[in-house]
């Protein structure tokens, strides 16, 4: 068994697609109209057949209170692996990305947390 698909709820799918592709560097994999929204996924360019991230509309009434509570408490909705957290932090800050946690080393793990501009906190992580 392996993870095929995971999702993040986003306020605006087009804005999320721009952020996740143009800023974070993912590539669009799937875009299928579904009513007023789209089945819209991105993947890592390093693993185009790997786990897909669904940019899911945040319209369900339970989503906003859930995301608000996570953001208020500083809890990331998910984590993305990177080769060098500090280098990615510097690159993304240069692109105007807001971080809620600068790089922190905890033994063999380094993390940082960013605001995805779509209602979520995302953790960057590298384990040596």
What is the compact description of this entry?
By secondary structure, the protein is an alpha/beta fold. It is built from three helices and eight strands.
Question: Overview of this structure, please?
Answer:
The protein has helices spanning 13-23, 63-72, 85-94, and strands at residues 5-10, 27-34, 37-43, 52-57, 78-81, 99-106, 109-115, 121-127. The chain is globular. A hairpin with an 8-residue loop joins strand 3 and strand 4 (52-57). It has 128 residues and is an alpha/beta fold. A four-stranded mixed β-sheet has the order 1-4-3-2, with helices on one face. Strands 5-8-7-6 form a four-stranded mixed β-sheet. The chain is built from three helices and eight strands, in the order E-H-E-E-E-H-E-H-E-E-E. The two termini are 25 Å apart.
Gyration radius from CA atoms, angstroms: 15 Å
Strand tally, please?
8
- Shape designation: globular
SS-derived structural category: alpha/beta
Sheet with most strands = 4 strands, mixed
Strand content: 35-45%
- Spell the H/E element sequence: EHEEEHEHEEE
* Separate helix tally: 3
